[in-house]
Amino acid sequence: MAESNKEKFNDLGLGTKASSGTQRSLNKDGSFNIKKINVPFSERINFFHVLVTMSWTKFFVLIFIAFFLVNILFAGAYMLIGLEHLVGIEGEDNIDKFLEAFFFSSQTLTTLGYGRIAPVGALASTLAAIESMLGLLTFALATGLLYGRFSKPTARIKYSSCAVIAPYQDINAFMFRVLNPRDNQLIEVEVTLTLSFKRKDSQLRDFFQLELERPKVVFLPSTWNIVHPINSASPLYRLIEKEVLEKDAEFIVMMKAFDETFSQTVYSRSSYKASEIRWGQKFTYVISKEGDTTIVDVGRIDETEKAALNSIPVQV
Fold this sequence. Notes:
By secondary structure, this protein is α+β, with helices and mostly antiparallel strands. It contains six helices and 16 strands.
């Protein structure tokens, strides 16, 4: 049974050739380090995915720019058909008139309308009707996107920036630490850990699923040290730091949990490269008591301290 853990496998979808080289297969933020080229535009474009997954800053900047450009377009259209078709325009020069047309456009687009300026004639009224209909559809779409961003379940699991090789019982172990910095509750939290090694004298890679001390916890209210014991069944057995670096090891983490807030399963991914492992270190204890309350110092999740590694006896 122990030897089976050393068997190579390749079911991550990365491929031994596709993941060749020394770059990361999986970035620290969980995104894949893969770029697709020669994909037709019609197959590549996915506006909903882009708008829902981009940062809040980019989202609001994009909304503002789109709103600004649409109003410029319609203000130009009102100028083109003639501002005599807009009753209430009081500007004396073209700039003032354009600004009034711009703000009339914004009021029409949002179906707000203060009543001072109004369209007169079939052409201006038709243009205003088209703009108001476009505004209703656009703001309904924007509301849906906003709701989609708020309602999209995400697991904001925080990973330690480094992993460690630390003493564990009478052997050593590979460890990293995770926690949930939010107040929402994650239950039935599961983790799988995969090791990727570069083959000797080759750029191709092999994959090993690592056995964990505890692959699942029921709750995650505090920190969780995820431990892979480096026993005789481990691909890391008897490897020293230099050898792990030469093999360009990458530890790929996949976590799954049930989020009570959304009543949905959420996922989280990350990875550790060989250069991000601290040998002969262990994570410091970041939990304390304050009265009847347990305190978890999230800011110290990356803290480690020296720990003498256990020596592995030579088998005769």
